[in-house]
Amino acid sequence: MALNNPYNTTLLRNETAAGAAALRTETAVGAAAQLLLLVLLGTAIDLGPAGWLTGLAFAVATWAVLTRALQRSWLASFGAANRVTLARATLVGGVTALVADSFESPTPVTALVSLTAVALILDAVDGQVARRTGTSSSLGARFDMEVDAVLILVLSIYVATFLGPWVLLIGAMRYAFVAAAWVLPWLNGRLPPSTARKTVAALQGVLLLVVGADVLPYPVAFGAALLALTLLSWSFARDIRWLWRTRAGRAQ
Questions:
Q1: How many other C-beta atoms can be found within 10 angstroms of the C-beta atom of residue 10?
Q2: From residue 26, how far is each of 29, 32, 122, 166, 230 by CA, in Å?
Q3: Are 148 and 123 in contact (CB under 8 A)?
Q4: Using one digit for the tens of pLDDT, what is the confidence trace for 128-145?
Q5: What class, spelled out in words, does domain 27-72+79-247 have in CATH?
Q6: How many CB atoms lie within 10 A of CB 35?
Q7: Any alpha helices (H) in 105-251, and if so which ranges?
Q8: Could you give the percent of the chain with pLDDT greater than 90?
C-alpha cells in the first residue's frame, strides 16, 4: 500500500526527472567540450571551413545520438567510464575535423597524431574504469565500440589519401558488417569474448596512427596498412564463421 502513497509517487517522479536532467547535462558538457576543442584547433592551426563544418556536425551528431540512447536506457547516472569514453569521443571529433581540413590545406601532423594517441590511450582506460567501479553497461560498451569505429574510419580516410583507396576497406569493414546484418539476421548473434578480436581491434588504431604519422618509408607504411587490413579481415572472417556455425542453435 505504501507504494501507492502520493508522496512516494511524487518523490519517485522527482528523482527520475533529476536523473534525466543530470544525464542531459553530461551530454551537453560533452558537446561544449567538443566546441571548445574546435575553437582551440581553429586558433592554433587556422582550421578551415571543411574542418569547422565537419567538427560541428560530429559534435551535434554525437550529442543527438548519445542523448537518444540515454533516454532509452535504464542508466541512473552517466558513470565515470562513460565520461572517459565521452572525452575520447571529443578527441575523435577533433581528429575528424583535422582530417576533413586536410583536403583543403596541409595537415598538422603533430596535432593529428597527438589527439589520436591520447584517444587510443583512453580506449584502454574506460573499460578498466567500468570494471573497477562496477558500472559496466550495454550502452557503455556500445558507446565505446562506436567511438572506436569512427576513429578507425577517419584514420583510414586520411591514410588512403597517400596509400590508395584500398585502405578505406579497414574503416568500412565494420559498417559493411552492420549493413549485412540487416539482410542476414544471424549476423546479429552475440559473439563470445575473444582476446584475439580485442587485440586486432586495438592494432588497427595503432598501425593507422603510425602510418599517418608519416615517419615510415613508403614500402613499410604500405606493409603496415596491409597488415592491419589482413588482420581485420581474418578477425571478421573468424567471427562470421562462428556465427554461421551456431545460427541453428540460436534460432531455437
A1: 10
A2: 5, 10, 18, 38, 38
A3: yes
A4: 887 787 777 788 888 889
A5: mainly alpha
A6: 15
A7: 109-133, 138-163, 168-183, 195-212, 218-245, 247-251
A8: 59
